[in-house]
Design a protein that fits this description.
By secondary structure, the chain is an alpha+beta fold. It contains nine helices and 18 strands. 27% of the residues lie in helices and 24% in strands.
Length: 420
């Protein structure tokens, strides 16, 4: 027998929630088979078997939490021996040493479903094939997967099937025998005040709240504001898209590239603070905030300073698609040395973001605004873009950060320098 242990699936993970078991007791397991879907503090991950055998026993039920390294199931190996418990796999190591967990940007904490009652399996002991995101949405809305016909490959139930079921009022999944204490207390509060709906915090929200609070409390933030002339940037983007058609480059792709270039020229901002050392990262990895249905995730563009704008755009679209489908891997969300959070597409003029430790700074980008500007003594129409740089004063001082922001502004106002 071999114990299957709760793996470490992200560099900030401390415990995991069993999302759904893909194998049931008595099922044969081959190397590479997906045994279980696990909710981490960032996403839902599929856990694959490292040994072949038969699933003997499930120790942690769906919706329950287990610490890293705790046994969650027992696998009867083909040899019938009793080897030592399999070591929990570690995530891909980050290119630089890390000093603290990485929270998401301010007011944009990642969200994920709360650990709720498991959706029942079909009567023959197996569940219909479904994507992790579909199973997550089904649990959130109490949808019984066994009542649905999947529209994906091989009848796989996908997100669109769940959304259709929600609209049509599909049969709800049977509740668990006993509700979780948090759910019970929330229901009691809701009954006390019929005008208030109490929704228990899911573990993603709890982790994000804790990390953001720690960041704000422990890292002395200061903020630098800068407005740039956005007309050259927009004109350059238009010419670039004409040349690259049908490929497209966004304003955010250009900002990411410009930020990476400025970080290469100003390495004192591409750092991390520890109690004993200031860590200068030799590589530039830029995290990009991506809005998803449940909140926000921050995949990382590795070596952004060495990549072209079109490559950054392609990689950003690919990672954004994975984020929305719940398929981001741990290594695709770790290792960032700087972050960019852009709310301009939502019409936000400007804002300040909370730093993601162990990073020393994060750039908040607002919307491009039409404003009157003065050129050659004349008031003419113009376009302006607001940037706010949040900086950890323990790692970087004001003058150093100001030089970085000044160089970033120069690159954005002379965008040929970005691709030079």
């Amino acid at each position: 027998m071999t114990d299957i242990l709760m793996p470490r699936l992200s560099d900030t993970m401390e415990e995991g929630v069993i999302s759904s078991w893909q194998k049931q007791p008595g099922d044969e397991v081959a190397v590479g088979d997906v045994i279980v879907d696990i909710e981490t503090d960032k996403a839902v991950m599929e856990y694959e078997a490292y040994e072949a055998g038969v699933l003997e026993k499930i120790l942690v039920a769906e919706g329950e939490t287990a610490a890293i390294g705790a046994p969650i199931a027992v696998l009867a190996t083909a040899a019938g021996t009793s080897p030592a418990p399999a070591a929990a796999p570690e995530p891909a190591s980050a290119p630089e040493p890390k000093s603290a967990p990485e929270p998401e940007p301010v007011a944009e904490a990642p969200a994920a479903p709360a650990p709720v009652a498991a959706v029942p399996s079909s009567g023959n002991g197996s569940r219909p094939p479904s994507s992790p995101l579909a199973r997550r949405l089904a649990r959130d809305h109490g949808i019984d997967l066994t009542t649905l016909n999947g529209s994906g490959p091989g009848g796989r139930i996908v997100r669109a099937d769940i959304e259709s079921a929600i609209r049509s009022g599909a049969p709800a999944a049977a509740p668990a025998a006993a509700p979780a204490p948090a759910a019970s207390s929330a229901a009691a509060r809701a009954v006390e005040d019929p005008d208030v709906e109490a929704v228990p915090l899911n573990r993603f929200r709890k982790v994000a709240a804790r990390r953001l609070t720690e960041s704000k409390r422990e890292a002395p933030h200061f903020y630098l504001n800068r407005e740039v002339d956005a007309e050259p940037l927009l004109a350059f983007r238009a010419r670039l898209n004409e040349a690259l058609a049908p490929a497209k480059v966004s304003v955010n792709d250009l900002i990411v590239k410009a930020s990476a270039t400025a970080l290469r020229e100003h390495p004192a901002v591409n750092v991390s603070y520890t109690e004993e050392n200031l860590l200068f990262h030799k590589r530039v990895h830029v995290g990009i905030a991506v809005a998803v249905e449940d909140g926000l995730l921050v995949p990382v563009i590795k070596d952004a300073d060495r990549k072209g704008v079109s490559e950054i755009g392609r990689e950003t679209r690919e990672l954004a698609g994975k984020a929305r489908d719940g398929k981001l891997k741990p290594q695709e969300m770790s290792g960032g040395t700087f972050s960019v959070s852009n709310l301009g597409m939502f019409g936000v003029d400007s804002f300040a973001a909370v730093i993601n430790p162990p990073e020393a700074a994060i750039l908040a980008v607002g919307a491009v605004r039409d404003e009157p500007v003065v050129r050659d003594g004349q008031v003419v129409p113009g376009k302006r873009l607001a940037l706010t740089l949040s900086v950890d004063h323990r790692a970087t001082d004001g003058a150093t950060a100001a030089k970085f922001l000044d160089r970033l502004a120069a690159l954005l106002q002379n965008p040929l320098l970005i691709v030079a």
